[in-house]
Amino acid sequence: MILALSETRLVFYSQGLTATGWAVAIGGSVVFALLLVHGIIRSRAWALVPVLMGGTAAAGLAGWLWGREAGALVFSLSGGLGGTLGLVCLVRWLSRRPALLEKDSPEAAPPAESAVAKKPQEDETPQGLLPWWQIALGLTLAGVLALASGAAGRSSPSAPPLVLAALVTGACVAWAVFFYLRVHGPAGRLPAAALLAMRIAAILILVLLIFKPTLSFQERLARRTDLYILVDTSRSMSVSDWPDTPHRMALAAKQVEEYLKRLQSTFEVKWYWFDVRTYEARPGEWPDPKGDATNITRVVKDVLATARRADTAAMILMSDGLDNAGGNVIREVAAIGPPPIYTVGVGTDLSEASGFQDIRLADMRAPEECTVNNLTKISVDVEAVGLADRSVTVELREGESLVASAPLRLDGTAGSQNVTLTVTPTEVGPHTYKVCIRPDPAERRTENNERELHLLATDPKIRVLYIEGVVRPEYKPLKSVLETDPNVELAALVQVRRGEFLQSGNLRDVALAGFPKTLEDMRRFDVFILGDLDRSYFSAAQLENLKTAVSEGRGLLAIGGYNSFGPGGYEGTPLEAILPVSVGPRSMGQETTPFVLKLTPEGAHHPIFHGTQEFFQASSDALQERLPLLKGCNILGRARPGASVLAVHPQRTTEGGPLIVLAVQTYGSGRTAAFAADTTYQWYLPYRALGRESPYIKFWSQMVRWLASKEIKEQSTEPGMDLVVLKPFYQPGEKVLLRAKVRAEEGRATNFATVTGVLLGPEGERKPLALALGPGGGGVYETELDPPDPGAYRATVEARKDDRPIGIADVRFTVGRPNQEFDRLGIDRALLKNLAQATGGVYYEPANFGDLVERLRGRVTSENVHRELGIQTVPGLFGILFGAFLALVTGEWVLRKYYQLN
Question: What's the rounded Cα separation, in Å, for the pair 427 and 542?
Answer without folding.
Answer: 37
